[in-house]
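Listing S7. Sequence submitted for prediction.
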Amino acid sequence: MSDLKDALWQEAQAAGFAKMGVCRPDAVPDLAKRLDAFVEAGFHGQMGWMAERMHWRGNPAALWPEARSIIMLAEPYTPDCDPLEALTRRDRATISVYAQGRDYHDLVKKRLKRVGRWLLDQAPGEAIKVFVDTAPVMEKPLAQAAGLGWQGKHTNLLARDLGNWAFLGAIFTTLELPVDEAAEEHCGSCTACLDICPTDAFPAPFQLDARLCISYLTIEHKGLVAPDLRAKMGNRIYGCDDCLAICPWNKFAQTARDIRYEPRAGLQSPPLEDLVVLDDAGFRAMFSGSPIKRIGRDRFVRNVLYAIGNSGEARLAGAAAALAEDADPAVADAARWAVERLA
């Protein structure tokens, strides 16, 4: 099987992946316990799906009992500029690097299927299942178990030869492939990712309270955001890259290999005034093929209005005031808040 695994790695590289590792479905025995503690503390916020599917999420073997190996793959999407610089342009929006290009779910899944089909051709009678972020699979702990890297103090996966700008994908298979040694943690005494967080979303190293995380607030959180958190969101309207961008291991980050991960026209620091006027049709047209599309126009414009309120640009008050009676209560509330802030 080692020869098959070596050939599999060659195929994975040809498909665009930068790292590959293999682990058993039971490679992280404390996975369920860690998930239980996260949910018990309420750190998952409104992400009810985490609590509802804990049996599968905390036990990969239960998700597909026939699986004997989990192939973890990583693909870099490293930006070619410093994402933190965008935060200084307060009249413009900052969108998380991963969401500025094509939807990674589609691109990574296509690569996984290509690698999976190749594997099945080599081993007729076996079976596979591929997963990219949307299934109850805890990719980051499994990636660490497979040797791809470790979960840093910011809870994201990072590696000495990859940095932390990487998408993860999983191939579950009935094949029993040779496993890799789990990666060890190399954060040392560094706390850069914890110190830079605008909302203090890390109660302790290696722990995240999603309820305070700007990525969660702008993407998963429905309705009104607490006023004390709105001011800390700055001009971030979709996601937050601060803890990723500051990581010193990124000096070894690999270059993104797919041009489709490069920013689409108009998504790298777009003017807030261009975004706040989007209606539902305009929003859908602008973000077709983008992961941003899934949050909908209302949540998106709510975030834009918070950014306008934080901009200090009095000239944007009129655009905010125009939405003070919006049909969506959260948008209307955000508009009024922005006008008050700018006044």
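Caption to Listing S7: primary sequence and predicted structure tokens for the chain studied. The chain is about 35% helix and 10% strand. The first helix runs from residue 2 to 15.
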